[in-house]
Structure formats: structure tokens, C-alpha cells
Design a protein that fits this description.
2 copies of one chain form a homodimer.
Chain A (H helix, E strand, L loop, with lengths): L4 E9 L4 E10 L2 E7 L7 E4 L1 E6 L8 H9 L3 E6 L2 H19 L5 E6 L17 H8 L4 E7 L2 H5 L3 H12 L4 E3 L6 H9 L2 E4 L5 H9 L3 E5 L7 H4 L2 H4 L4 E4 L5 H6 L2 H10 L4 H7 L2 H7 L14 E4 L9 E4 L2 E5 L2 E2 L31 E6 L6 E6 L2 E3 L2 E3 L6 E7 L8 E6 L7 E4 L8 E5 L2 H13 L3 E5 L4 E5 L11 H17 L7 H6 L9 E4 L2 E4 L4 E2 L6
Parallel strand pairs in A: 1-4, 5-6, 6-7, 7-8, 8-9, 9-10, 10-11, 11-12, 17-22
Antiparallel strand pairs in A: 1-2, 2-3, 4-13, 13-14, 14-15, 15-16, 17-18, 19-20, 21-22, 21-24, 23-24, 23-25, 25-26, 27-28, 28-29
């Protein structure tokens, strides 16, 4: 591909907040000349979009494939936290993401995951201590310390946590926050430690408090959390403080759109076009000091071409002067890649799921569509042959978490609202330790779904008597090493079967993947047992 | 359910070729009174539909589930040849179909399969010799000798064949034909042996010759062969000689419609309504002497209720006075059933599929969409590491047939026109011996698809790196023992993946299932090797 050329149109200059008619000359991937003059072309040339916070792993695609899908939507760069793969493979996983991302013409800016493992109450595949973080921070490939979820650690001056923060400061790299419900003096302490962003706001009030303390707010709209509607009013009052991000984006949804969707939505709501475009690019570039071109002389030629300024759809996406996508078709070629993994689970047997009836009521996890939080209640168990079984009529199903890092007896609990009428689902995407999480209407269905998953070294599976679907994710049990568009179709197929099995959830596998996430209240299941997030400790399945 | 009641409307009396206003009294499942009188109701009460020739097995449903789906479309009875299960399980299979069919209020009339195995050039699971046929014919549960495909045997007075025919005659039971291209003196010999029907006509000319010799013609429109358009003109000239049948009906298509579709289509073309309705019921009932009610005094109360005589859609279906279906919803309950099978294949290994290059051209099977016939041609092989591999660019893929009755090295050949761009498909529905047939773009994909199938004791599977779908068919490797509507959805899912893998065929699994059918020209693959139907013998994959 030739990356020396001239292109003319209406040039959107976000740095100087103006739009002018002119010509851009690109030589060797950089902008060598910008000439302001009348041109016959009414198309707009504007900076490409930046996803200011996204876990690439959630797309189930390796970075090189993520790039293919995202660049079709005008995305040229991401600020990415390899938190998921780090929980499985540690530093080796972080390195894999960096190396894989370099195979393609796309700009990945990775951070060092600050909280691996997420808690001490679960089995992860790896951990990153303060000296690991120091080592990562020293690398030119690491751009920031990523989401500091351990806000108690910050507030109470946990030594290890403070050392990680000190490392980031030593190298002059920003520190990302993650503080959904932190407020008042705790928040002041959290911010004063040097944490400068938050992407977990879900109400204006909390966001305004954080902005008041100097934080930047990432407006998040992904496959999991959706905060755009709640936070977009900040565009009128604090546009310079905002960035757009997706956090988690499933492959089928990434195929449908990315940051461009937020841009069009915000412009359609009447917000200032330049403010919106800055939130979609310049603000992140400035905050994280990203080497992403902003259509300035000498910049990398990273930009997109759109027909309609007020509803920008990327007709062409250029990165370092390379036309990486045109009219929705990627020019990036699929790259072969390795499949590093850590997967030592053994096949389950029926005995493993047996929960003897103790004549007591059971504590049931209640999940909610589209939410990471759960509640809990006590219920009479359904008993068969002395064992507690799934109760389809009351929609109280068996939930299982299986340690995937070494053969261990699985943890078994019960969950309300999954809605399955038959069959079972299993996933090795299970935040944050990514053990195997499964739910099903009979022990036999659960066994089949889990064992099918184990057979493939990870992935998502749906099983019932009449059919089964498996989507293997051999890279850390989180990502496929195959073509991203095919993975999107495969995931959609698994999702469709999950719904055919009776689940009314918007994204059954996503909800499932958060049922082992111990840092979000109220009741979750780790591979080690039922976990009460408020007490921050294990509790019995039975009412004492 | 109460099966004594009175129902009024416009009564369609096919026996006497008239329609009159009146009331039907049903007592204990039989018609105890018919009163001709004015009624306020304009709905039509007419005999239910009869599928005059269908292999239930092709629906992938056991008879008790087939009944649920078919009765919703106004079907009350089928004339059914258990040919497929007989090839796997012999008499035991025939008995299974009869017993299973009796579990539900639906009228199955089974025949004795005349040609099991279909040829001596393949490995079937069982055989039915003349004394087996004699034993079956003696049973009250067997209504006819089913499709005599071995027309050379009839024409040349093969002793075994003639004994089977003699058995049927001895018990006064009809003998069904299957003589697609037989004509002239051969046809005369075939008919004079006592064979009275044919369902293989695809041109008016051949059908008229057969009618001239006294045969009845079954107008067939199923998932595989579609002859309605070619043969329906006979409705104007020879309505009494016609019956409607489907022969093979996949579960998803059975869910969409059955004989009722042919009825509506024929009436819409302008043929006489009573003639069409007779072809859909009375003609088969008379020919096969079926105990199916025709709305005559003393008959079983088998009938349907429709709103529009000229576009009949079954609002209600009654069998022996039981309301088995209403407004598309079945009142028949799902029944548990056993899963008899014969499945002794071992997992395949890569070596099993290796075809050493001999420096010669290869003979390629050319398949065609929607056709059972194939052609052949010679091609240069694609060679890798000394072995011949699938050539996706030229769409020449490896085709494999694996003996499922005992562990044996598979037969490997090559096929054009399957269109797969990636992955592999496998099926244990593989006419007529129902070994495992598979096609794929790499040996590895084929291995996975076949082994996934073997793991489940039969079924259909689609496999690729990004996903896999399996539909287990544990009853003889041909049918599911589960809910028919779920099986329909599962099959549709496998079909969708086959198409996503690149196949442009209308029904990839159906085409695949006929690639081992040795009685249809020109080149096929048995578990024992490449088979030239014209020479009726094995030939080499290589050009000699």
C-alpha cells in the first residue's frame, strides 16, 4: 500500500477548533503539508476515533482481529487494559497482547493491570505484584497503570497498592480509576493518590463530584454497562473532561459499531460537534499522551473520511497513512497467532455436582438483566434422591464454578432469573479469574456443557439434549485466534441457542460471566465457594 | 379428552362426492350419526390428510413426535416405509417404529422394507431376507410391501425378490414400486409382477405410461425430491390415479407444512376441489385399505375442520374423535422413548484420511443442488506433503464415508460443488446404509466433525475452528428422541452453520446424505470405496 498521497476536503482541526477547506499531503505515513484552499470536495477529513478504555479480551478477538473490526468503524486507537489475560497468564499475557497488536497497522496503547488477582478469595492463573508492575511501567509499550479497582487499598494506604501507584508516577504515566460508589473524603483520598480518570460513573451526581476533584470522566457504552444516557448531559457543561469508551464489547456488537455510534448519538442530541469529536479522540490523546495523529503538521496520518459531519460514518480509515478500512471492509489481513493458555481442569462427573439436602433453606443468588450486581434470598430447595437439584418451575437453577487452573471439586450454588427451561451454558470467560462458570437445569446438562468446554481448552458452550454449540477460545480461554467476523457469527449462534433454551436475558453469557466477579455486590460464587460481597467473606449455601 | 360430541358444518363427503350442510355425532371415537340439515356454521368438516409415502426417519423425529408436528397441518395418517431404520436395526427397527407410533393418537401404517440392504456394495447394519419379509407380512401391523427398488431383480426374476413379492400377495397386501427410469417391456414385466404404485415419476410422460399399465402415481413433494409441478397436470386427466406424498421431510420443513401445502397449491391452480381432496386422502385409504375415517357412518372420527374450502388450513384435527391439534398447537404430549442404535465406529486419526499422491489425476464426484444424481470428471489433485488434500479454490473437497457398524479404515474420495470455504460437515443419516458421511476443507476439520458425531452415537455435525454444532440422533443414528419442535430448531441451526461455512446448496446435509446412495447414478462413495453406478462396481480414485 502506498502511504504517500494527497487528499482534499473539509478538514476538521480539533486542536484549533475549526473546520476549513484544504488539502493534506501525506508522505511516508506522516502529514508533510496542510494547505488551506478551496477544494471541490465536500467530504470531511477528521481525526480517527479512540476508545479510551476497552478490554480487548471481551471482544473474544485477539488484538490483530479486533483492529480489523474496529477500524471499519473509524477507530484508529484504543487505550486498553489487558486485565483479563493478565489474570490467566500474568506478564506473559500482557506481552502477548502487545506483540499481537503490533502485527497490524492499528494503535493499541496498553496499560499495566493494577489489580491481578482481583481478590484473595478466588483462584486466578497469575498475579502481578508491585515489582511486576515496576517492570511493566519501565517498558515503552506500557502507557498507564490501569483501573485501580482496589479503592479500599488506596484509601487505607495498602503498601503494595501504593507501590504500584508510585511506579506509575515515577515513569510519569497516568493512573486510571475505577471507583463506582466512592464519594466524599474517601474519594478525595483516592484522587489525591494521583488517580485521574473514572469510567464507572452511572449517575450525573457522582460524575460531577469527580470532575470537581479534577478527574476526567469516561462515558461508557459497551456490551455490559451502558452509561451514555445518564452521563451525556456533561457534554454541555464539561466537554473537556469527557472521553468515550466501551469497556467491554462482544464480537457481534463490535461488528455493528464502536465509538462512532456514540459520536452520532451525541451529535443527534444537539451537542456541539467539535466537543463531541474531541471526546471521541483529542481528549484521550492528550490525557494519555498517545501518539495518535490529530491532523497537525508532522503528525502520523491517522484520520478518517466521512460524508456527513453531523452523522459521521467512516468511509475510509487511515492509520499512519495506510488505508486500513474502506466502506466497511477491512484491508487488514488475518494474521496467524499462537494460543497461549492455562487450562488444567479435569472432566467433571455427576458426583461433583451433588449437593446433599440438609433439610435447610438455601441462599439463592438473584441476578438481574444487564446488571453486574446481584441480590439474594432464602428458598426451599427442590430435592431429588437426597440431593438438591435445579428447580425450573421456580427458575432456581444450579450455578457452578470450576477452578480451571488445577483439578478441584467445583463450587456449587443456586441462581434465580436465568430463565433456562432446558440445557446448560458454560463459559471460561468469568471475571476476573476466568475460571469455568456454568448454569443449567439438570446436573447432566451442566456436566455436558462444562466438559465440552474443557475439551476445547476454554470457550463458551450451550448444551441440551437436542443440540450443542461450542465456541472455542483457545487464547487464554478468553479469545479466539480466528477471523473476527467468524467469531462474531459463532458467538451470535451460541447466544441464540442460549435464548432458545429459555433464557430471557439480553446477553445470557455476559450475565453468566459476571456471576463470579467478587468485587460487585451482593452475592457471588467463586471457585472456592459462595461469597458475600458485603461481609467480604464466604458463607454457607444453607441457612444456618 | 372427551371423544363423544356433536359437530356441525359443511360436510365434505368424498366417498359420495358431495358437500352438504349437516351435523356429525361422534360417540366413543366413531361416527354414530350424520344428519343432513341446515346449520348456522359455514366451516367445513372434511377427511384428514394422508401422506401416501413417507419415511418418518427423514424427519429426524420418532413417530410419536412426527405425529405432533404433522397433525397440526391436518395430517391424520401416513403410509410409511421404515426403510432407513431397517437398514440399521433390521426387524427390531421396524418393530420400534410400530410400537413407538402406537403411543400417540395418530394413524401410522407401516410397510415391510423390501430392499434391505440396498446393495451388496456397502455395509449396512442389518438385512431383511425373504423369510424376514414373510414374518413381517404375517403381522397385522404391516400393511404393504414397501418400495421395490430392486427393479432389475423383478425384471430378471431374482428368486429372493420374487419370494418377497409372493409373501405380500399371499397376505393380500399391496406392493409399492420405485422405478424412476423403467419403461417399455421392462416396466410391463415390473407391473405384471404385481407392483401397483410409483412415487419416483418426475415427468408426465413416464407417469402416463405407468398409469396406462394400471399403476397409481404418487405426486411427491418433500425436502429432497420435488415433482409436484411436473405431475400435477394429471389431476385434470387421471384424478383417481393420484395420491400425494412427501417421501422425505426434514423437521424444520415438516414444522412449516405437510400434505396441506400440496392441497392448497393444487386447488389454487384451478383443479377440482373434490379431486384434490381425494388425492390427499380417499385414494390412499382405498388403495392401501387403511382404517382411516372418511366421514361415513361407523367410521373412525378422523377429520379436520377448516374455514375455507378453497384454501384449507386445519383449525382442528380429530383422530378417533380426539382433538389432537387446534390452531397449529398439538394436544399430543411428548412421550419418553428408548434409543436403540447400532454404532461401533472408533474415533478417526489423521492417518485414516491420508491419500498418497500417485502422480495421477483423480476421479471427482460432481454433485448438484437438489439432485440425487451425480456426475464425474478427472482433475489434477492438490498435493501437500505427498498427500492429496481438499482444494477450496477449485471447490474439490475430500469426501469420506466411515463404516459405523465396525471399526474399519474409512473410504476417501473427492467431491465438487459442495462449496465449503472452511470447516467440515458429517452425518450418520447417509442413505441407505447410514454409515457416516463427511466432507470438509481440511483433514483436521473432517476428523473433528466425524469424531464429534461418533462421540454422540450419530447425528449431524458442523465443525470449524471458531465453532461447532452437533445435533445428536441417538435413535439408530437417524432420529432424535426429543421434542420435535426443538429438533426442528436444532437442525435449522446446523443447516445455518453449514451455509455460513460457505455451502451454497439449498440443504447441504441432505445432499451429503445422498452421496453414499449407490443406486442413483453416476458416481458415489460407499464405506468400501468409490462406486461407479453405471458399471455397478468399485473403481479407483485415480485415473488408470
Amino acid at each position: 500500500m502506498n502511504n504517500s498521497f494527497t487528499i482534499g476536503g473539509q478538514i476538521v482541526d480539533l486542536v484549533n477548533s475549526r473546520i476549513f477547506s484544504g488539502v493534506v499531503v501525506v508522505e511516508n505515513g506522516k502529514i508533510s503539508k496542510i494547505e488551506e484552499k478551496a477544494v471541490g470536495n465536500t467530504r470531511y477529513i477528521m481525526p480517527g476515533f479512540v476508545d479510551a478504555h476497552v478490554h480487548i479480551e471481551s471482544s473474544m478477538l485477539v488484538p490483530s482481529e479486533f483492529a480489523r473490526l474496529a477500524s471499519c468503524h473509524g477507530t484508529v486507537a484504543t487505550v486498553s487494559d489487558p486485565h483479563e489475560i493478565a489474570n490467566v497468564l500474568g506478564k506473559e499475557g500482557v506481552r502477548y497482547m502487545i506483540d499481537n497488536g503490533k502485527k497490524v497497522p492499528f494503535k493499541f496503547f496498553f496499560g499495566a493491570p493494577s489489580c491481578v488477582p482481583a481478590t484473595a478469595f478466588e483462584t486466578a492463573g497469575a498475579s502481578l505484584n508491585a515489582s511486576d508492575i515496576e517492570e511493566l511501567m519501565a517498558s515503552d509499550d506500557i502507557y498507564y497503570l490501569s483501573e485501580m479497582m482496589n479503592y479500599p487499598g488506596v484509601i487505607f494506604d495498602d503498601r503494595e497498592v501504593m507501590e504500584k501507584i508510585a511506579s506509575a508516577k515515577r515513569y510519569g504515566k497516568p493512573i486510571d480509576g475505577h471507583a463506582p460508589a466512592v464519594t466524599g473524603p474517601d474519594l478525595q483520598k483516592y484522587v489525591s493518590a494521583g488517580i485521574t480518570t473514572d469510567h464507572e460513573c452511572f449517575r450525573l451526581e457522582g460524575a460531577l463530584e469527580k470532575i470537581g476533584l479534577g478527574m476526567k470522566i469516561l462515558v461508557r457504552e459497551g456490551s455490559a454497562a451502558k452509561n451514555f444516557d445518564a452521563l451525556i448531559p456533561l457534554m454541555a457543561t464539561h466537554p473537556d473532561k469527557l472521553m468515550f469508551c466501551s469497556d467491554d464489547k462482544h464480537p457481534d456488537e463490535l461488528d455493528d459499531g464502536h465509538i462512532d455510534v456514540l459520536v452520532r448519538k451525541a451529535i443527534a442530541l444537539g451537542y456541539n460537534v467539535l466537543d463531541v469529536l474531541k471526546a471521541a479522540s483529542l481528549n484521550a490523546v492528550k490525557h494519555y499522551k498517545l501518539n495518535v495523529g490529530m491532523l497537525q503538521l508532522g503528525d502520523d496520518a491517522d484520520f478518517i473520511v466521512v460524508d456527513d459531519l453531523h452523522s459521521p460514518v467512516a468511509r475510509q480509515t487511515y492509520i499512519r497513512g495506510v488505508l486500513v478500512a474502506e466502506n466497511g471492509v477491512s484491508n487488514i489481513k488475518y494474521k496467524e497467532t499462537e494460543t497461549p493458555n492455562r487450562f488444567e481442569a479435569h472432566f467433571l462427573y455427576a458426583d461433583d455436582l451433588f449437593v446433599p439436602d440438609e433439610g435447610k433453606r438455601i441462599k439463592v443468588i438473584e441476578c438481574f438483566d444487564g446488571q453486574l450486581i446481584t441480590k439474594s434470598f432464602f428458598a426451599e430447595p427442590k430435592v431429588e434422591n437426597g440431593g438438591i437439584v435445579s428447580d425450573v418451575e421456580r427458575d432456581i437453577l444450579k450455578l457452578v464454578v470450576v477452578n480451571r487452573y488445577k483439578p478441584t471439586k467445583p463450587a456449587v450454588a443456586f441462581i434465580k432469573n436465568f430463565g433456562l427451561q432446558r440445557g446448560a451454558l458454560a463459559s471460561s470467560v468469568a471475571h476476573d479469574s476466568h475460571n469455568i462458570v456454568a448454569v443449567g437445569v439438570t446436573d447432566n446438562d451442566i456436566l455436558h456443557a462444562v466438559n465440552l468446554l474443557i475439551e476445547h481448552g476454554g470457550g463458551v458452550t450451550a448444551y441440551c439434549n437436542t443440540e450443542m454449540v461450542a465456541v472455542p477460545l483457545p487464547v487464554a480461554g478468553l479469545m479466539s485466534n480466528e477471523d473476527g467476523y467468524e467469531v462474531a457469527a459463532a458467538y451470535q449462534n451460541a447466544d441464540a441457542l442460549a435464548k432458545r433454551l429459555g433464557s430471557k436475558l439480553f446477553a445470557p453469557f455476559m450475565t453468566l460471566s459476571f456471576m463470579a466477579l467478587l468485587v460487585i455486590p451482593e452475592l457471588k460464587l467463586s471457585d472456592k465457594g459462595l461469597f458475600d460481597v458485603k461481609q467480604f467473606g464466604f458463607i454457607s449455601v444453607f441457612k444456618e
